[in-house]
Amino acid sequence: MTAALAGNRYVPAAIGTGSLVVLLALIELLIRIGLINRFIVPMPSEIIAAFPRVITEENVLQRFLLTAGEAFSASILVTLFGVAGGVLLYRYYLLRLATETWVAAVAAAPLVLMYPLYLVIFGRSALTIVMMGFTAGLAPIILKTLEGLTATRRVLINVGRSFNLTPSQQFWKILFPAALPTIFVGLRLGLIFALINIVGVEFLINFGGLGQLINELAERYDLAGTYAAICFVILVSICVFILMERLERWLRPVD
Amino acid sequence: MAETGRLTLPAARPLGLRLRPVTALRIAIIVAIVVVWEAVSASGLLYRDVVPSLVAIGKALYLTLRDASFYFHLAITAYELGIAMVIGGLSGLAVGILLGGSKFLSRAFESFLYYLGPCPKIIFFPIMIMWFGVGRAQKSPWARSPASSRWLSTWRAACARSTRS
């Protein structure tokens, strides 16, 4: 019975969405009867009602585009430099041996703490936010690109050799396609790190798009608006994630 | 024969200074970074207090490590981290086992977690302050959320593998 339900395409999704609706209704009820303080948690109906206000009065579209633009710029930078860095470490083995552990250490470090330094270097502007996103997303992409290239099967490289491919052909026709799935894992990680830092720094320096909006609304004690703005940030995250999935499918249509 | 780009290094041979090539390169990189840092610090291109000289940083680090209050703050951070890891790890583990053990539950609820994973957790900061106040209790749930997602995904994958096999 459960297996049949699980096999159905729509039933699990409907149950999942239904559960969320029931949970929200329950929270609404608990707030209305006073078991949850409405000055700490706003009613879900108030949050829904706040959406049009936040969209029209707080220029959400403009802020959304600003955050999306910063995320996009950081994504381009991080992809170019991250993949190039991974290829560089793959190509120069000595450099890889000397620096791979350092790159791994940078990936684990809380780089968001560097924002005061970036503020002085780049000023309180979108450039600081983009550079923070870039810094945070770089290390995972370098490491995953390196891992993908290193894990290329020997037989594929030998096939390239048997066809007497040039180094450039060997890279673009053998190494890069073989490493692409792992590179995309790195890109996904790197872009998530970048997005987290972009919104985080917007929030911390009170500048820019949706991160600043959350900060402003929270400081105004507009709880319903704060929750609505949080929903918009979650929406941006989902959009970036879906975009990455589509891009990955487009670049490698055959698994 | 085409070059594949994979270099095969001979076994580490000592240089004149009896340094392995990797160690020598590491030292060279560190020296280059130190020289660039000191040059930027001395040039005045950036505010001196933002890029201070390494000597000043070393002194400040020494004074910080000598200060007893530093270890108190370190202990508080370690305590918060420990609590957050325990709560996040256990809750993530429980949900991961639950979703990994049931295909139906997994298909019903995993998409929410899947899309919530890449969401920047700092946006929940104002909410957490409202829920838990300003103190240690507020920081632990904040740290807990990414920890939960990581544990969750790890254990979800582990459970999915075990159910498949």
Question: What would you say this structure looks like, in words?
Answer:
Chain A has two domains: 2-41, no CATH class; 52-251, MetI-like (MetI-like fold, Orthogonal Bundle), CATH 1.10.3720. With 255 residues, chain A is mostly helical. Chain A is built from eleven helices and no strands. Chain B is mostly helical and 165 residues long. Chain B has two domains: 21-66, no CATH class; 68-164, no CATH class. Helix content of chain B is 73%, strand content 0%. Chain B is built from six helices and no strands. The longest helix of chain B is centred in the middle third of the chain and has 34 residues, at 68-101. Chains A and B meet through helix 1, helix 2, helix 5, helix 6 and helix 8 of A and helix 1, helix 4 and helix 5 of B.
Instruction: Output the radius of gyration of chain A.
Output: 23 Å
Q: Structural class, from helix and strand content of chain A?
A: mainly alpha
The CATH topology of the largest domain in chain A turns out to be: MetI-like fold
Number of domains of chain A: 2
The gross shape of chain A turns out to be globular
Count the beta strands of chain B. Answer: 0
Structural class of chain B: mainly alpha
Residue-averaged pLDDT of chain A, rounded? 87
What is the CATH class designation of the largest domain in chain A?
Mainly Alpha
What's the SSE pattern of chain B?
HHHHHH
Oligomer: heterodimer
Shape of chain B: elongated
Low-confidence stretches of chain B: 1-5, 147-165
Percent helix of chain A = over 70%
Alpha-carbon distance between the two ends of chain A: 32 Å
> What average pLDDT do the residues of chain B reach?
76
